[in-house]
Amino acid sequence: xxxxxxxxxxxxxxxxxxxxxxxxxxxxxxxxxxxxxxxxxxxxxxxxxxxxxxxxxxxxxxxxxxxxxxxxxxxxxxxxxxxxxxxxxxxxxxxxxxxxxxxxxxxxxxxxxxxxxxxxxxxxxxxxxxxxxxxxxxxxxxxxxxxxxxxxxxxxxxxxxxxxxxxxxxxxxxxxxxxxxxxxxxxxxxx
Length: 191
Fold this sequence. Notes:
0% strand
């Protein structure tokens, strides 16, 4: 059977998207080659037609996770009617839906400690993804000057990431909601 010229790229993208969900939901080890290939309807042996190594897949899947979640945050910001798009980002990020669904959420929240432990070469590639994430979010942050917006990004996102990680670690919905609500209210009052 002949495939279209775009077939290989489409298959590779399906593999990367599945792995992006898996790494956020299960951690870096969750993107096991056999499981990812099975999910996309392919054999384990076909993996090396698309990637040189599992590390290559991990790097691409984390990049895809950042792209995917940044796209959601940009959409929330652009839909904001308040004239303060950063507030829409905070409200989108700090909610129980995001808390309940790490597979579709922020990759830093899901993977932060793991990303800090990978070998230096991969960490450098992840750093580039974090910089791109920041650069995508900074225009929506409060402040007049670029330096103020960047400072706001670091304060807002550090607070949101920490609050989400803490909320996910808690066993009861009421405690999760309390953490998320308090962080959200604090941020919305602070800028």
